[in-house]
Recover the amino acids of this structure.
């Protein structure tokens, strides 16, 4: 189908269902064909298709739901370089597994933004390091407040759904996200 991407096919004994997503990811088309090539075409909004859990809805959701990944730099995608040692930033050892995962998300159409405690004066060396190490991204935000002796954690509040992943340098590998139960802080009202 023109201007659409096939995302799911299911073959039954007497019929086939094909599910397409249009290029701007707003509509889902389901084509049901009976033996003998009699086909019916149905159009749905993304919300309708996912909400009713029609055939292939999980693949539709995977193709259409995109994430804003907001990722730290130092100690997350490369060696942990303190701002007080900027001469080391250009030679920071990249975490290849992290970069491969991030580039995969980028290729899948997700938004990749880095949020770093590096300051504006580190912009040039940071952008060059990203380019030299093949890190695909949409933007870098500098001047994130730093963790120190009195401020020991980040807590982000937003009116949109938030997911957080803590990366432990040295003992963690990047890869597909999995769901695990965890305790989270919420407002007690």
């Amino acid at each position: 189908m023109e201007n659409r991407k096939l995302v799911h096919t299911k073959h039954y004994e007497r019929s086939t269902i094909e599910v397409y997503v249009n290029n701007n990811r707003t509509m889902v088309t389901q084509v049901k064909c009976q033996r003998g090539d009699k086909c019916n075409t149905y159009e749905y909004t993304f919300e309708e298709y996912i909400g009713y859990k029609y055939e292939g809805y999980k693949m539709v959701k995977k193709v259409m739901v995109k994430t804003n990944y907001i990722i730290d730099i130092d100690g997350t995608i490369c060696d942990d370089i303190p701002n007080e040692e900027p001469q080391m930033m250009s030679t920071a050892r990249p975490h290849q597994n992290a970069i491969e995962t991030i580039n995969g998300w980028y290729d899948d159409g997700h938004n990749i933004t880095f949020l770093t405690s590096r300051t504006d004066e580190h912009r040039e060396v940071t952008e060059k390091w990203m380019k030299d190490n093949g890190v695909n991204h949409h933007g870098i935000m500098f001047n994130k407040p730093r963790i120190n002796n009195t401020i020991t954690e980040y807590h982000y509040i937003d009116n949109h759904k938030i997911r957080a992943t803590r990366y432990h340098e040295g003992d963690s590998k990047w890869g597909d996200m999995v769901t695990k139960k965890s305790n989270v802080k919420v407002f007690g009202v």
In short: The chain has two domains: 4-64, 67-175. The mean pLDDT is 87.
